[in-house]
Amino acid sequence: MTSSPPTGQTTENAKIGQLRDDFLRSDAAKTLATDDAARLRKFVTWWGISKDANAIQPYRVEEFLAQQLNTSIQPRTYMPVLKAFFAYALKCGAIESNPMTVARLPRGAGSAKKTAAQATLAPQAAAAAAAAAARQAQKQDDDVLYVSRDRLQVMQADLERMKNDERHRISQMLHEAIKDGDLSENAGYDDAKMQQGLLEARIREMESKLRNVELIEDQQVGSGVGVGSKVSLEEVESGDKIDYLVVGPEETNPRGGKISHRSPVGRALMGKSAGDNVDVTTPGGSVRYRIVTVG
Q1: What is the 3-state secondary structure (H, E, C) of 221-276?
Q2: Is 190 left (phi over 0), alpha (psi -120 to 50) or beta?
Q3: Structural domain count, the chain
Q4: pLDDT tens across 185-213, in order?
Q5: Based on the domain organization, do 36 and 99 belong to the same domain?
Q6: What span, in angstroms and rounded, lies between the C-alpha atoms of 248 and 260?
Q7: CATH code, 177
């Protein structure tokens, strides 16, 4: 592959999610470490997959790195992939300036020597650190919203409709209500203001979701169950078989064979492999399944 500019990506329209995908398929990503793709995905999810890459300023990169001080992964480990990514984006003309030429590690990020010294922690301290890292990893996973490409397009269209059509409709309602005079006893005005508040809350909620979107199609499905996996299960006690596709909460449809990775069954299956038994606790009791196949 070559590092030619991504199709249609300019400083005016370069979305960071698409730019990330183009970068990971390019020659520029071939020399990266194994975990670098995951670190880049985490940064892109934090920024917002559908947001403009050109809007990222150095202080925003530093803000992201500072947040990593509270995780099990040192901020400095993000630097190589972020430098490579933004150098690629600049070369392709997708951004006007490279924020990594200015962005610096936060104080307290430590050095490789300090990280090596941390390996000598007492067993109790190491266990506590591992437990905290596991909790943080679970929280970060819960923050991610996995959706299909089709669902993402629907969500983006809904947001645009609310920002344009719905805002305009309510603005007209307010305008008409204000023309009626006294606002202290104006039911039309009160109703329009209430609808306006509800609409703005829905817009903020949708924007928050889109900032944390990851495409199911981009997930690497291995031998273990993950988002995007097709799983065939057999109930151990009855022998009944059922097939599921593991998706995000936005597309959950148990009757259609789609379960969320956050559901009781989904959480029990995540990371498991064919041949494993899993116990699922539901409101109706505990059920044991055997994983027949994972695809």
Answers
A1: CCCCCCCCCEEEEEECCCCCEEEEEEECHHHCEHHHCEEECCCHHHHHHCCCCCCC
A2: alpha
A3: 3
A4: 778 888 888 999 999 999 999 998 888 88
A5: yes
A6: 5
A7: 1.10.287.180
Contacts by residues 12-16 (CB-CB < 8 Å, ≥ 24 positions apart) = 12/54, 13/52, 14/52, 14/53, 14/54, 14/89, 14/94, 14/95, 15/49, 15/50, 15/51, 15/52, 15/53, 16/44, 16/47, 16/48, 16/49, 16/51, 16/52, 16/53, 16/56
| 63 band by pLDDT with thresholds 50, 70 and 90 | confident
Q: What's the pTM value of the predicted model, to 2 decimals?
A: 0.49
In a domain? residue 157: yes
Output the domain CATH number for residue 28: 1.10.150
Q: Domain range spanning residue 242?
A: 219-294
- In whole angstroms, what is the distance from residue 236 CA to residue 214 CA? 34
